[in-house]
Amino acid sequence: MAEFTKENVALIRSIPDKYFAQVQQVVLEGVQKGQLAPEIAKRIQERTGVAESRAALIARDQVGKFNGALNAARMKALGVKRFRWRTMRDNRVRRDHEDLEGKVFAFDEPPPEGLPGHPVNCRCYAEPLVDEVLDEETETPPAPEEERVTETVTEVPVPAFVPVPIPFVLPPPPRGEIRGDGAAVAAAHPVLAQTLGAKLRVDDFDSDMVKQHVADLASLPPQMLESIVERLTDVHISVKPLTEMGASGATKVMDRQRQEAFARGETLTGGDTRNVAEVGGMFVRARRNGVLVREVLVSESVPHGSFSTAIHEFAHAVDFELQPGKRLSEDPEFVSAWEHFVGNASHRYADNPYLTDREDDHGIKETFAEGLALYYKHGYSSVAQAFGFAVAEYLDKHFSAEAWGRRAQPPPTARPAARATAPAKRRKR
Predict the structure, then answer these.
(1) Nearest alpha-carbon partner for 331 in 409, 394, 254
(2) Cα-based distances in Å from 328 to 51, 341, 356, 427
(3) What residues have CB less than 8 Å from 41, skipping those under 6 apart?
(4) Chain-centre distance for alpha carbon 314
(5) 234 within 8 A of 179, measured Cβ to Cβ
(6) What 3-state DSSP class applies to 238?
(7) Confidence check: pLDDT of 179 > 80
(8) What's the confidence (pLDDT) of residue 267?
(9) What is the pTM of this model?
């Protein structure tokens, strides 16, 4: 880690040579402690006296380089040899990186730019080609009979088992089997079988997009999945349109109501004029036959526009259901962060009416869901660039894996109040 930091700090050309060692020390200490880019930037500014904007750029750049190199090292350690270059797919992507989008490289033979995240202020990321590793493991033919070697196994003492603490213990037994292509899903992502179980239905798991939706859902902190599973009626991922999904049939009723409204010249909040069948994902909260149904639906039939449709819609469910009777996005702290995002034109999506519409808190709810989708998909720095540091800080504070771990811990047992005793009287001499 120290050598990596030294090499990358040496690439900075905007600070005097005499400050290199200090910046190297600040960056090294920051990444070791898990500090965020704003914290590292503040310390760089204090040590070197460079402008605030320059310190912020250096911090973002160094943290991005470190995360990119760390992810590459992790993938190589797991046996993943190649990756697909992915950009953020927006108008801020540099031209030469647009040309790299979707191309496949080996971790040991990256393009001249280096690994994703290595160029200055690069927001790209490496999508590991995990399937190649799985194919190698499953397609290796058995050795011919004459080439097989019988090994002599020598028994050795087994070391004593030392339990290692983990942030979340999966609840036994499973909650019933995943429906649809459940066996394949459970084999690929056991965490979904343990947390969502029979509440989850996956159709057409051989579809690459459906696989990606499922993988995104499985990447969420297990405590997040566990937190609201009992309040959900259905979680359904499929290639079908939404009108053919969900156990309650609520989407068909909603589609008819929308078409009737559009025929009257009405539009939905945020200017939405799509029928339900034209929507790529939806969190349905509706009353059917006197019963309140809550369904997370993700369809491959049409594009959604989110960084992750599955995470976006599940985030809506968490927003509405984690604290019954109150949305999480109503938190004044988040509303203040959203106001800061809307009021700053430099944020990437500050002019997007779908995220800034104030009617019925539409923009607040959508920013909450899309912020979490971006946070879990690409991390803190991407949220800061898209929605501002205030939104990024809020989500990191309340919805990081560590924060979910704290939510899952039982509250400490209150100690009984000590009985009040009268002060002892002093004896007179």
Answers:
(1) 394
(2) 37, 18, 18, 61
(3) 52, 55, 56, 58, 59, 60
(4) 11
(5) no
(6) strand
(7) yes
(8) 67
(9) 0.56
